[in-house]
Specification:
With 179 residues, the chain is an alpha+beta fold. It has one domain: Ribonuclease H-like superfamily/Ribonuclease H (Nucleotidyltransferase, domain 5). The protein is 42% helix and 20% strand. The protein contains 5 helices and 6 strands. β5 and β6 form a beta hairpin. α1 packs parallel to α2, α3 crosses α5 and α4 crosses α5.
Length: 179
Amino acid sequence: MRVLSWDTSLSLPGVAIIEVKNGKPRITALSHVKTDSKTQSHGLRADIVESWATLFIAEHIGKNGFDVCIREDFNGQSSTQNYPVFAAWSGIERAMDKFGLSFVKWTEETKGGRKKTSLGPSPSKVKLIVCGSGKAEKEEVAEAVRNYTCYTGEFATPDESDAAGIGLAYLIREGLIKT
């Protein structure tokens, strides 16, 4: 199984590929791109994110593609917070569409017993599943990712380890890896 997972932002998005064999997850690729909010418009930054995502997918899709593509959900408090993330989402989604890829939905049961579907797990849900605490710090996420995957390389940014954490949250929740 191959999972393509995205930690999406307009400033510093990250991506990870996790392959699972015999119930053991392994990171096979990581990347990120940095844009500049001071000198680049939202439109240019979204295009940079889309270009980076397109090149990453083209390099790594191979003949087997991906079994699951997932991103983290986001609910900002204002349009100032939402717009940059949604612009990056759009760029990544356009890149994925070029390869016939789409994101899985995240469905969970609410306290009242109803099912709620979102575009991905929330940041606190990822932290809760991967670290055991919805308030875990970025360093704790990176450490948990290392523990699950036996990854010994460097994370160039916390966004790379966060992207891997998003993929791991899906794999753990679906019972696809040994915990």
